Amino acid sequence: MAEEASGTSSSVVALPQKVTLYSYHLSSCAWRVRLALLFKGIPYEYKAVDLLRGEQFTDEFTKLNPLQMVPVLAIDGVTLVDSIGILLYLEERFPDKRPLLPKDLVQRAQIHQVVSLISAYIQPLQMGGILATIEAKFGKEEQLKWIQDIFRKGFSALEQILIRTAGKYCFGDTITLADIVLVPQFANAIRLQVDLAPYPTIQRVGEALNELPEVKSSVPANQPDAPKL
Ligand SMILES: N[C@@H](CCC(=O)N[C@@H](CS)C(=O)NCC(=O)O)C(=O)O
Fold first, then answer.
1. Per-residue model confidence (pLDDT) at position 12
2. N or C: which end of the chain has fewer CB within 10 A?
3. Rounded distance between C-alpha atoms, residue 53 and residue 63, angstroms
4. Interval between CA 28 and ligand 1 midpoint (Å)
5. Residue 54 included in any domain
6. pLDDT at position 128, please?
């Protein structure tokens, strides 16, 4: 990874006055935004939206996001929806606070390729609603096969990319947006009992990411709306 992405928090850009993240502890998309806010050192208020109880369908929440999904981020007097749009806003608004994209255009494109592979292929095909429909129509066994197939195709492609680009993390030894989207997907793979043996690079990078303090504090179990054990 080029040095330009390895900067520290040297920015003089003032922090926004109030930042509110609408999140659900188990949402992988909201987890991406929690991570970016933590890496960039932007304090935020956590507003829980209980997806299991259907709070995303209330009139109040639909006004914030007509697609009725988390995450939503209120920042700088605007309301932003969609995790990738939010990540790009944070990166462009606070480019010097722990940069998550390098300046090199080819590397940026490769990082966007990984972000897209995970956020536009792997994650949408295993959303809770889709898995519930498959289970209801075809049963638990077919649902598991569906999950395994998505991961097999998605992670095989990702492994081939990361073999060439990874250092300690997805692109060299610097955290980028690719790592931000990988963290929740890696956790989902483990939760859904995906065999990671065919993907040694993903496994190594995922485990290295899990050691970071920002990752530890952003995990679902550490969110205010996680069930108390
Ligand atoms: N492309 C959107 C997808 C957001 C998304 O899929 N959110 C899920 C949780 S990870 C959700 O809110 N689902 C609510 C539902 O399925 O009713 C993003 O990246 O933010």
1. 63
2. C
3. 18
4. 8
5. yes
6. 80
**Residue for token pair 């940069």:** 99
Residue by residue, DSSP assigns 15-59 as PPS--EEEE-TT-HHHHHHHHHHHHTT---EEEE--TTTTGGGSH
Q: CA nearest 9: which of 39, 43, 45?
A: 39
Enumerate residue ranges in the chain where pLDDT < 70.
1-12
Q: Give the burial class of 155: count Cβ atoms within 10 A of its Cβ; 0-12 exposed, 13-18 middle, 19 or more buried.
A: buried
For the record, the structure tokens of 82 come out as 């969609």
Q: Which amino acid is at 66?
A: P
Based on the fold, state whether residues 117 and 209 are members of the same structural domain. Answer: yes
Q: With a threshold of 0.85, does the pTM exceed it?
A: yes
143 and 91 inside one domain:
no
* CATH number of 54's domain: 3.40.30.10
Q: Using a 6 Å CB cutoff, which residues line ligand 1?
A: 27-29, 51, 56, 68-71, 82-84, 119, 127-129
Q: Which tokens sit at 222? A: 């550490």
Taking the centre of ligand 1 as the mean of its atom positions, its distance from the CA of residue 8, in whole angstroms, is 31
**What distance in angstroms lies between residue 80's CA and the mean position of ligand 1's atoms?**
14
46 with 81, same domain: the answer is yes
How much is the pLDDT for 5?
Answer: 44
Q: Please say which residue of 98, 133, 158 terminates a domain.
A: 98
214: its two tokens: 């920002």
